[in-house]
Amino acid sequence: MAEMLTLTQAAAKRVATIAQKQAKPAILRLSVEGGGCSGFQYKFDLAEGAEEDDLVSDTDGVRLVVDPISLDLVAGSVVDFVESLGGAAFRVENPNAAAGCGCGSSFGI
User: Can you give the residue ranges of the Core domain (predicted)?
Assistant: First the structure.
């Protein structure tokens, strides 16, 4: 499927840890909102479940869910969790983004 999204093992492990601490299902919802320094910004939340029309990707028992509107902007992306001297964060490698910001949390098409 060309619209497939990928959750890396590092991201899946981090979601599982957060979900366990918060006593929630290991389901990460990725959505896109208007804003940020490049026009759109990524939003991450733990979800209770997937909606009927969500795209669902599974990695090591952790699910990544994306609504159809956001999917148009992030299709083919890889969601990773990276730790560096600057901090730790989920990062989206989005092949659809024509521009991005230095922090990696917003993008333009």
Answer: 5-104
CATH architecture type of domain 6-93:
Sandwich (2.60)
Of 24, 103, 108, 21, which is closest to residue 73 (Cα–Cα)? 108
- Is the CB of residue 49 less than 8 Å from the CB of residue 40? no
18, 46 Cβ separation under 8 angstroms: yes
Sorted by sequence, the CB contacts under 8 Å of residue 67 that are 6+ apart come out as 29, 31, 51, 53, 54
Report the alpha-carbon distance of residue 66 to residue 60 in Å, rounded: 18
The domain segmentation of the chain, as residue ranges, is 6-93
